[in-house]
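residues and backbone:
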Amino acid sequence: MLSNGESNLPQFAESVRLHIYAGSRILERMPSELAVLDVIVEPTRRRILDAVRAGERSVTELVDVVGMHQPGVSRHLKVLRDAGLVEVRRDAQRRLYRLRAEPLRELDAWLEPYRVELAGRLDSLERHLERTARPILPKEQSQ
C-alpha cells in the first residue's frame, strides 16, 4: 500500500481468492484469474459454461446437455457459482443459470501479454522460414 492509499500491486493481484487445500491444510492466496483457471480446467464445467453462454438454462436442461445425473451437475454448478462464473435466479420451483462473463474477461486480459509474446515469436519463426526454406519441387509423375 502506498502512502496515498493506492496499491502498488498489479490489478489482478489485488483481487485474490483464498484457497484451502484440506489434505495438506495449507492456506494459499491466488489471483482470481488462476482460480478461474482451476475451475474451467474440468471438461464438464466447460460444457456447462458453453451451454449457458447463449442464455439461461435450468438444471434439468443442463443435466440433458452434460449427460450427468442431477447431483453431479449441481456440484459443478456450485463450483462455477463460487468462482463467479455463473449466476442463478429462482423461477418458481426452477433455478435458472446464466453466464457471468466478467471473470473470463479478467482472465483474457491477464493472458493478453502472453498472446503478444507468442505472436511475436511466431512472426520471427515465419520470417526465419521464409529466409531459409528451400521450395519443395513437385515430383515428376511417372507414366
User: Anything to note?
Assistant: The domain at 32-129 is CATH 1.10.10.10 (Arc Repressor Mutant, subunit A). Residues 6-30 have pLDDT under 50 and may be disordered. The beta strands are 16-21, 26-31, 57-58, 86-91, 94-99.
